[in-house]
Automatic annotation (TrEMBL):
<feature type="transmembrane region" description="Helical">
    <location>
        <begin position="67"/>
        <end position="94"/>
    </location>
</feature>
<keyword id="KW-0472">Membrane</keyword>
<keyword id="KW-0812">Transmembrane</keyword>
<dbReference type="GO" id="GO:0038022">
    <property type="term" value="F:G protein-coupled olfactory receptor activity"/>
</dbReference>
<protein>
    <recommendedName>
        <fullName>G-protein coupled receptors family 1 profile domain-containing protein</fullName>
    </recommendedName>
</protein>
<feature type="transmembrane region" description="Helical">
    <location>
        <begin position="120"/>
        <end position="143"/>
    </location>
</feature>
<keyword id="KW-1133">Transmembrane helix</keyword>
<dbReference type="Pfam" id="PF10326">
    <property type="entry name" value="7TM_GPCR_Str"/>
</dbReference>
<dbReference type="GO" id="GO:0005886">
    <property type="term" value="C:plasma membrane"/>
</dbReference>
<feature type="transmembrane region" description="Helical">
    <location>
        <begin position="163"/>
        <end position="185"/>
    </location>
</feature>
<dbReference type="InterPro" id="IPR019428">
    <property type="entry name" value="7TM_GPCR_serpentine_rcpt_Str"/>
</dbReference>
<keyword id="KW-0732">Signal</keyword>
<feature type="signal peptide">
    <location>
        <begin position="1"/>
        <end position="17"/>
    </location>
</feature>
<dbReference type="GO" id="GO:0042048">
    <property type="term" value="P:olfactory behavior"/>
</dbReference>
Length: 211
């Protein structure tokens, strides 16, 4: 079962990469669409950049609007993966909450242990909200606007920036919410400026007395 559980993110990640790269690969229609924007925004030509583009609608030979189905299907499946991920987070988070609430009164008579269980659950909820807010919602908004042919302009840069922040912020809830971790962190934060401001006492030669 361990191999099965570990294979799930690998399979989903591979599916995501394949459905993002090939259906959204660079082509003549996307070059025409983003060429001027890249030049105006970054002062670069298309020969100097590589990009992927979920470009769903393009003009046909007679200037009619044509749906590019590979991008439509690929990003549609990726959107389903996002929704499945959110459902998994909410479902198993709720199950953890029920199990913790049922175990604490039966297995722990110590107030300290109960407090620790509450801190662990609060850290779990916070770590659950971080990827939802920083990854799922921005990418979902980005995909929805692409489907609806809504141009976000510079706001489209929020999604990659928030995804990069997720890696940094994810361990922080555990460090600040769990009492033991918070105490150690506090001691370190106090120790660092103390260490930096500490000056060694210099003994003057004339104060040394030989006996």
């Amino acid at each position: 079962m361990i191999v099965l559980w570990l294979s799930i993110p690998v399979a989903i990640g591979t599916t995501w990469a394949v459905l993002t790269y090939w259906p959204c690969a660079r082509r003549e229609a996307t070059d025409r669409y983003v060429g001027d924007n890249i030049n105006e925004t970054f002062h670069l030509t298309l020969d100097e950049v590589e990009y992927i583009s979920p470009y769903f609608y393009e003009l046909g030979k007679h200037d009619e609007l044509v749906i590019y189905w590979p991008s439509f299907v690929g990003i549609g499946i990726n959107s389903c993966i996002i929704n499945a991920s959110i459902f998994t987070i909410v479902y198993f988070g709720y199950k953890c909450y029920k199990i913790l609430n049922s175990l604490v009164p039966k297995t722990s008579t110590s107030e300290k242990n109960r407090q620790l269980q509450k801190q662990l659950y609060l850290a779990l909820v916070t770590q659950t909200l971080i990827p939802v807010v920083l990854m799922h919602i921005p990418v979902s908004v980005l995909y929805f606007c692409s489907f609806a042919s809504v141009q976000l302009g510079p706001l489209s840069g929020i999604a990659p920036a928030s995804i990069a922040l997720y890696i940094i912020l994810d361990p922080l809830p555990t460090m600040f919410i769990i009492g033991q971790y918070r105490l150690i962190l506090y001691k370190w934060l106090i120790w660092i400026p103390t260490k930096l401001n500490c000056k060694k006492q210099v003994v003057q030669p004339e104060s040394i007395e030989m006996t």
